[in-house]
Design a protein that fits this description.
The chain is mainly α and about 120 residues long. Helix content is about 90%, strand content about 0%. The chain starts with a helix and ends with a helix.
Length: about 120
């Protein structure tokens, strides 16, 4: 009976070891499944964040381009206004020279005065 008992104990130990190994493997597999699920969630969040960052960058670039365009338009408008101002001054000088009733000393401007007024 001692031999039978030893054999039964050995079989019980082997069965217990097999059960422990199977349970450990199952837990490891469940852990891996959970880690994969969590990694997918993180990737989805990262993808959404990347899309939003790309959208914001594109919007910022569009706004910067619009601002550059408006700045160039404003500069062109300023130059056009300056050219128009110069043309008005030239026409006024011509009118002063042509006007026989204009007081030569009071109404005429010299070219130097006009250049001083026109030059920035």
């Amino acid at each position: 009976m001692d031999t039978t008992l030893v054999i039964l104990i050995a079989i019980a130990v082997v069965v217990a070891l097999v059960v422990v190994v199977l349970v450990a493997r199952r837990r490891q597999e469940e852990r891996l499944i959970e880690q994969r699920r969590e990694a997918r969630e993180h990737r989805a969040i990262a993808d959404a964040s990347q899309v939003e960052a790309d959208r914001q960058a594109a919007e910022a670039e569009a706004r910067a381009a619009q601002a550059r365009s408006e700045q160039l338009a404003a500069e062109q408008q300023r130059l056009d206004a300056e050219a128009q101002r110069q043309e008005a001054e030239r026409i006024r000088m011509k009118a002063d020279r042509l006007d026989p009733d204009a007081d030569a000393n009071a109404n005429r401007r010299t070219d130097d005065e006009v250049v001083d007024r026109i030059a920035p």
